[in-house]
Specification:
Blueprint (H helix, E strand, L loop, with lengths): L9 E6 L14 E2 L2 E2 H11 L5 E5 L3 H9 L19 H11 L6 E4 L9 H13 L4 E7 L8 E3 L5 E3 L17 E11 H7 L8 E4 L11 H12 L3
Parallel strand pairs: 1-4, 1-5, 6-10
Antiparallel strand pairs: 2-3, 5-9, 6-9, 7-8
C-alpha cells in the first residue's frame, strides 16, 4: 500500500486497564505464546501513518509489559478512569490532554482486536483523510442479518427488530448490514474534543474482513484466537 501524502500528525492510543469483567487480567493473557497486548503493539509498530503511539494504563504490570514490547507509556492513567463504568472516550481525551504535543488525528486501538493488521489501521486512517471525514471506524458485515432478527412480545410472538413491512424470505435478497468490530477508531482531534464520541451520523466506515474482526470478550474468544494465531507461528 502506497503511503498517502499528507501533512497531518497522527497519534495512536492503546487503552489497557488492569481490571476486566469478562476475562481476568485479559490484556496480559497469553495468546499464541505472547501477551494479548503484544499483537496490537506489533501492528501499531508496522502501521505507516503514526507519528507516535502510546499506551494508557493504570496498571504497573501492563505498563512494564508494554514498554518491554516497545510501546511508549508516558504516564500512569488515574484509577478513576480505569473502572468498569469508565467510557473509552474519556480515556482517549485524558491521554490527549496529558501529551504536550498536538496532533491532528487520533486512532484508538483496543487490545481486544488481536487479529487486526497494520493494513487495517492504515486503511482506516487513509480513508478518513481522503474523504476529509471527521471520523472513520472499522466495521464488518454482520454474520446474521438484522433483517432476520426478532424480539418477543408478552405473548411470545415474533416482532421484527427492523420492520420493513414484509419478511424477506431469501438471504440473497437481504440488504447488507454491518456491525462495529472494535478494531480501529480514527477521528480528528479537534472534532473529538467537541463531540466527545467517535461515532455520529457523519462517521464513515472502513470495512474489514470477518477473519480479522474477532473482538475478545470471553475465554472462548481467547481460545479461538490462540488457535488462529498459533497456526501462524
Amino acid at each position: 500500500m502506497t503511503k498517502y501524502k499528507h501533512n497531518k500528525k497522527v497519534i495512536g492510543i492503546i487503552p489497557a486497564r488492569g481490571g476486566s469483567k469478562g476475562v481476568r487480567r485479559k490484556n496480559l493473557k497469553m495468546v499464541a505464546g505472547r501477551p494479548l497486548l503484544a499483537w496490537t503493539i506489533e501492528q501499531a509498530k508496522a502501521a505507516k501513518y503514526f507519528d507516535r503511539f502510546i499506551l494508557s494504563s493504570e496498571d504497573a504490570e501492563i505498563i512494564a509489559a508494554a514498554r518491554k514490547l516497545g510501546c511508549e507509556a508516558p504516564f500512569v492513567r488515574p484509577r478513576k478512569l480505569a473502572g468498569d463504568g469508565t467510557h473509552t472516550i474519556d480515556v482517549v481525551l485524558h491521554a490527549l490532554r496529558k501529551l504536550s504535543e498536538k496532533y491532528d488525528y487520533v486512532v484508538l486501538l483496543q487490545p481486544t482486536s488481536p487479529l487486526r493488521q497494520a493494513e487495517d489501521i492504515d486503511g482506516c486512517i487513509e480513508l478518513c483523510m481522503r474523504k476529509n471525514a471527521d471520523s472513520c471506524v472499522s466495521v464488518v458485515e454482520a454474520g446474521k442479518s438484522l433483517y432476520w432478527s426478532f424480539s418477543l412480545d408478552q405473548k411470545n410472538r415474533l416482532k421484527p427488530v427492523l420492520n420493513t413491512g414484509k419478511l424477506i424470505p431469501r438471504r440473497q435478497e437481504l440488504p447488507k448490514a454491518y456491525t462495529l468490530n472494535g478494531a480501529v477508531y480514527c477521528a480528528r482531534v479537534d472534532w473529538l474534543f467537541k463531540k466527545k464520541m467517535f461515532i455520529t451520523d457523519e462517521t464513515i466506515a472502513f470495512v474489514m474482513p470477518p477473519e480479522r474482526s474477532l473482538d475478545i470478550d470471553s475465554e472462548l474468544d481467547l481460545k479461538i484466537v490462540d488457535c488462529l494465531l498459533g497456526g501462524k507461528k
